[in-house]
Write a structure and sequence with these properties.
The protein is mainly alpha-helical. Helix content is 69%, strand content 0%. The chain has 12 helices and no strands.
Length: 285
């Protein structure tokens, strides 16, 4: 597959190298659109679309003849469909549909600081991270004839389980928020202003947990293909985990400031990994 060939890099001439070049172009386009429209949401709009596209580039280069690459591509496409749908129904693709947390980042860094952050990390940094946590498919591409084994089937089962968990968490949050809006519109009391039921009884951010774990599982396909546990393509899931930490902290700080009872919820229910807590029932009641 021919790449864009506008920059020399170690993956030049490979399908995932083409994906890297596309990634850099999209980062520039997203940044330019953010400047023109004064919205940072362009990077969020690309987040769910790029991984399936990158995987399809690799699968197409192999004429869809690698069962492992095909499996990884199908899973990435399913992930992309779920996230795109969830983002769209929340209004993310509408003009002005910017995530509420960007306003807090602007306030924290100021106009100049935010633009520096935007041109250095928000757009090129995040776009490269998206490319990077999809990179295990490059490892699978390097071993196209390695047959599928039990480890692949285990990874696929774990990926789908986490994808289903993420879907349920998003649906539960959506239903809660819609009911909350209805109550407010009707002038009814909202006794519980933040979500504590369903999967949120066991984790304050079950969708975050599933998302992080899901891409760690994706890395396992590269392990299954090569037989090697350590490879540079694992940097993507590490980087994604590190990205979620400040995002989670910001979300938590906003919620704790907005809802007085949120700190009790924090004390009772773990932030990510579902672990039993003796006083959870009291906080989630």
């Amino acid at each position: 597959m021919l790449g864009l060939d506008f920059i020399a890099h170690p993956l030049s001439g490979t399908p995932f190298g083409t994906a890297l070049e596309l990634c850099l172009v999209l980062a520039l386009v997203a940044w330019l659109l953010s400047v023109i429209t004064r919205e940072v949401s362009w990077i969020d709009r690309l987040w769910s679309i790029c991984p399936p596209v990158y995987c399809l580039i690799v699968a197409f280069a192999l004429d869809f003849n690698s069962p492992r690459v095909n499996l990884m591509t199908v899973l990435a496409v399913l992930w992309g469909i779920r996230l795109t749908y969830n983002f769209a129904r929340k209004g993310g693709y509408r003009p002005g549909g910017e995530d509420y947390r960007w306003a807090h980042v602007r306030k924290q860094y100021g106009p100049v600081g935010f633009q520096l952050l935007s041109v250095t990390f928000v757009h090129p940094g995040q776009m490269l991270l998206i490319w990077l946590f999809t990179s295990p498919i490059h490892r699978a591409w390097q071993f196209p004839d390695a047959p599928l084994g039990w480890f692949d089937y285990l990874a696929a089962a774990l990926f789908l389980t986490l994808l289903i968990g993420e879907t349920f968490a998003d649906r539960q949050m959506w239903d809660f928020q819609q009911d909350k809006k209805r109550r407010i519109a009707n002038g009814e009391d909202v006794r519980q202003p933040f979500m504590t039921n369903g999967l949120y009884r066991y984790s304050r951010h079950p969708n975050y947990f599933c998302e992080i774990a899901l891409w760690w599982v994706f890395y396992l396909f590269g392990v299954a293909a090569s037989g090697e546990w350590l490879h540079w393509t694992g940097l993507g899931c590490i980087g994604l985990t590190l990205l979620f930490i400040p995002s989670l902290r910001m979300t938590e700080a906003i919620s704790a400031e907005k809802y007085p009872g949120y700190r009790d919820y924090q004390a009772a229910v773990p932030a990510l990994i579902p672990l039993p807590r003796k006083d959870r029932a009291k906080a989630a009641g």
